[in-house]
Specification:
Layout: H1 6-12, E1 29-36, H2 43-49, E2 57-63, E3 73-78, H3 86-100, E4 106-109, H4 114-118, E5 121-123, H5 126-129, H6 151-163, E6 166-173, H7 175-190, E7 196-201, H8 219-240, E8 244-249, H9 256-265, E9 269-270, H10 273-278, H11 283-299, E10 305-310, H12 313-316, H13 318-334, H14 338-342, H15 345-355, H16 358-365, H17 369-375, H18 392-409, E11 419-424, H19 426-429, H20 435-453, E12 459-464, E13 474-479, E14 484-489, E15 492-497, H21 507-522, H22 537-540, H23 545-558
Parallel strand pairs: 3-4, 3-6, 6-7, 7-12, 8-10, 8-11, 9-10
Antiparallel strand pairs: 1-2, 2-13, 4-5, 12-13, 14-15
Helix pairs in contact: 3-20, 8-9, 9-21, 11-18, 13-16, 15-16
Length: about 550
């Protein structure tokens, strides 16, 4: 039996591209310091919590004379959900580390942040690294969601680093994982531990971005993977002409994934959570909007279509958002309550309903038991509802059926409605990275070591100008505190990296708005096909519509 697939054998041979400035060599760079920075919000509170790492400058590089580097051991952690390209971040980090000094060592902490606390690790050698280049997944060392926030955890991390003579740590993760990195960097700095911490921006959700972080890694590959599958469904729907497909897409709070996939495939309906919140749309208004399109298509003889539903939609519907915020607080109170934990499911619903504020209790009581159960499941590590487990698409379908039945009684609808529902999420998290993500991730990892080499801590690896070819990308570093604000978690306000939601005044959303009515009725479906790794640049190296449109808007704004 083959150990490797033919595609993996070929992908192992791919040599990722680096920004031209990093190709000069790790030891031939000088550091350029920008102006001092401040947090995106809550400046006084963040400054007070991060006295040793707040206000640092954005940094970049220029070429300089070759300087011999001292030995430096580094630890690396994969944190949070998987995203395509994570292995290449580690490969880039390893190659830069060895290029700087062949005696340097890289240790991978196993199972996420818990590995550095429990002292579980392996030394990553070229033999290990070379088996994982350009592959998907996080299985080289595994991942986890342990929060790094207590004195005991920080102390154990320090002790385990001292045992391995580690003076630098790279944490690869999303907004919450990089919040971990910021907290750990601050603690080490306060203790004069001599251990630096650098983050890398990972998440398929696309919500870890700002002026300095143009996109998180994995977004490119995941959206192209989902677009392929949705393109296949579009083709099937257009062939069979008898099903309405409701497709929930992963993305947690932000709708970047759904918006990008919509531009790649052009389905009939695309719901945008941020738009729902801004327009204060109730669930019944959302159902009315969908029903109107179903009816109009039926009048055209089209009893089929495709609707994209964002994973986090339910949290953005005003009455649900208010109820869920209240529910998060209630669940924090009952998670250690024996009476609640031992009660039958329906009795739990009654307990929760009795603890909610009156308006929120009314919304909660109106829900089907299936949705109540999903809302009442264990919280995620941050104390919030696990929206991926809420079958929003099924709730919409059931309410839509009721609405269509009512319209049929009134003589306003004479079509046929048959539904299919899907949830695309995990299918995209461990795909073979696209050429873009293979290059981008390798550059992020390579650059992370450069930041460590210059003695920086509390920074995130940044590679910009991503809509251009890799040789024109610009590497540097951004202080993690610059991206932070205060948010409520487990009933308390804590410092976290601010999530980037879809901007309704942004260029990507505007393209959807310009085409929404036409796509609803005219079937302008696109069929992207699978990710292409080999062939002409026009096929293999195309970027996401999100990155392309946002880059164009920046250029126009600069002029």
């Amino acid at each position: 039996m083959k150990e490797l697939s033919p595609l993996q054998i070929e992908r192992l041979k791919y040599q990722p591209k680096l920004p031209s400035q990093l190709r000069h060599g790790v030891n031939g760079l000088n550091l350029k310091l920008g102006a001092a920075t401040e947090s995106v919000r809550d400046q006084e509170q963040i400054k007070k919590l991060f006295p040793n790492t707040y206000g640092k400058p954005v940094v970049s590089y220029e070429t300089g004379a070759e300087v011999k580097a001292e030995k430096k051991n580094v630890g690396v952690i994969l944190s949070g959900g998987q995203a395509p390209g994570g292995h290449n971040v580690i490969a880039g980090l390893f190659d830069a580390l060895k290029q700087s000094n062949p005696e340097n060592k890289l240790y991978g902490f196993l199972g996420g942040p818990s590995g550095i606390i429990d002292g579980k690790y392996i030394e990553l050698t070229s033999e290990i690294i070379d088996r994982y280049r350009n592959t998907g997944g996080f299985d080289i060392i595994g991942s986890g969601r342990t929060k790094l926030e207590t004195e005991e955890q920080f102390q154990k991390a320090w002790e385990n680093c001292k045992k391995l003579d580690i003076t630098g740590i790279v944490i690869i993760g999303g907004d919450d994982s990089n919040t971990n990195a910021a907290l750990l960097a601050e603690w080490f700095a306060s203790k004069h531990a001599g251990i630096q911490v650098i983050g890398c921006p990972k998440t398929i959700d696309g919500d870890l971005k700002n002026d300095q972080i143009e996109i998180s890694f994995g977004f490119d590959t995941a959206t192209k993977t989902y677009a392929e599958m949705i393109g296949n469904i579009l083709r099937d729907a257009n062939s069979a002409k008898k099903y309405w497909h409701f497709i929930k897409l992963m993305g947690r709070s932000a709708t970047h994934v759904g918006l990008e996939v919509a531009l790649q495939t052009q389905p009939n309906i695309t719901l945008i959570s941020e738009e729902v919140e801004h327009c204060e749309m109730s669930l019944s208004q959302i159902i009315d909007y969908i029903a109107d399109i179903v009816v109009k298509r039926a009048e055209m003889g089209k009893n089929f279509g495709i609707a994209l539903v964002p994973e986090g939609l339910i949290e953005f519907i005003p009455e649900f958002k208010k109820m869920i915020a209240n529910l998060n607080d209630v669940m924090a109170k009952v998670e250690n309550d024996e009476k609640y934990q031992n009660a039958p499911l329906r009795e739990r619903f009654s307990i929760i309903e009795g603890m909610l504020e009156a308006d929120n209790a009314k919304v909660y009581a109106s829900l089907p038991e299936l949705i109540k159960a999903q809302l009442s499941m264990d919280r995620d590590p941050h104390g919030n509802v696990q929206v991926s487990k809420i079958e929003t698409e099924k709730l919409i379908i059931e309410m839509l059926k009721t609405k269509l039945a009512q319209l049929k009684k009134e003589g306003k609808y004479n079509g046929k409605f048959s539904d299919q529902c899907h949830f695309f999420g995990y299918e995209g998290r461990c795909a073979f990275p696209s050429n873009f993500d293979a290059d981008y991730c390798y550059s992020l990892g390579f650059n992370a070591f450069v930041l460590l080499k210059f003695g920086l801590t509390g920074y995130i690896s940044s590679v910009k100008n991503l809509s251009e070819g890799a040789d024109k990308w610009v590497a540097g570093g951004v202080p993690l505190t610059m991206m932070m604000n205060m948010e409520k978690r487990h009933g308390e306000y804590k410092p976290v990296i601010q999530k980037a939601l879809v901007r309704l005044d942004g260029p990507v959303y505007k393209v959807l708005m310009e085409n929404r009515e036409k796509w609803a009725l005219e079937d302008k479906y696109l069929f992207p096909g699978s990710i292409q790794y080999f062939g002409p640049s026009s096929v293999c190296d195309i970027t996401t519509e999100t990155l392309r449109l946002e880059s164009q808007a920046k250029l126009v704004g600069a002029k």
